[in-house]
Automatic annotation (TrEMBL):
InterPro entries: Znf_RING, Znf_RING/FYVE/PHD, Znf_RING_CS, Znf_TRAF
Keyword Endoplasmic reticulum tagged: no
TRAF-type zinc finger segments: 101-144
Name of the protein in question: E3 ubiquitin-protein ligase NRDP1
């Protein structure tokens, strides 16, 4: 749908009106036959038709093109009232800048930002509404720190809330202690397995060293026995030499 022609100040050229809704073009597209339409209007039309609503020439969505530049310029220069005119806004803007103004207009009806509140107020009155909104959040005046989200919460029991909070903290602490305990046990078990493996490796190395030592001692005894035998042979040879 286009912009309501009643919002515009002064004369609006016929060529800037949508051929379907007859309002001023919004987000316009142009057919090969040069008739112009609002994008929403022509897309809705082509769902059920395959021709131009003005001259009945065959058209397709793929043939639609943006409006000629000179027509876009004429369209953007049109002056119109803000849509919030009925609420008191007297601003008159060019069509090119009307959307930016209306997004920030102080007379726009906007919803309350508090969860659960269905009230809509003018943007300029929002701060005043938030100050008295029954759904506004605030801390308990008794100092317990509880956040009051609605009028019903104003009657909450501070002691009960604190007890609940303590129970939650206690449960959380117990869970954390149990998690830390399991983690420590897991680490100790891992270290214990590692130590057992290291002990087994060291014991094997010690056994191997003992075995090597035993072989070395056996070799030493053999060498000593051979040396004694050799010494005896030398002594015997020396005696024989003396006899000769």
């Amino acid at each position: 749908m286009g912009y309501d022609i009643e919002r515009f100040v002064g004369y609006v050229n016929e060529g800037l009106l949508c051929s379907i809704c007859r309002d001023v073009l919004e987000d316009p597209l142009q057919a090969p036959c040069e008739h112009a339409f609002c994008t929403a209007c022509i897309h809705g039309w082509l769902v059920h038709h395959s021709n131009c609503p003005e001259d009945r020439q065959m058209i397709d969505v793929s043939l639609l093109r943006p409006l000629y530049r000179y027509m876009r310029n004429d369209l953007n220069r049109l002056q119109l009232h803000c849509k919030n005119r009925e609420y008191g806004c007297e601003m008159i803007c060019s069509l090119e800048s009307i959307d930016r103004h209306e997004r920030e207009c102080e007379y726009s009806q906007i919803p309350c930002s508090n969860a659960g509140c269905a009230v809509r107020v003018e943007r300029r009155h929002l701060d005043g509404h938030l100050a008295v909104c029954e759904y506004r959040s605030r801390e308990c005046p008794n100092g317990c720190g509880y956040t009051i989200l609605s009028a019903a919460d104003a009657q909450h029991n501070c002691v009960a809330e604190l007890r609940t909070e303590l129970e939650l903290l206690r449960s959380e602490m117990i869970c954390r202690v149990e998690e830390a305990k399991h983690e420590m046990e897991s680490r100790l078990d891992s270290q214990r397995r590692h130590m057992v493996q290291k002990e087994s490796i060291l014991q094997n190395e010690i056994d191997e060293l003992k075995s090597q030592m035993s072989r070395v001692m056996s070799d030493v005894r053999s060498l000593m026995a051979a040396e004694r035998q050799h010494r005896q042979e030398l002594e015997q040879a020396e005696l024989e030499k003396r006899e000769l």
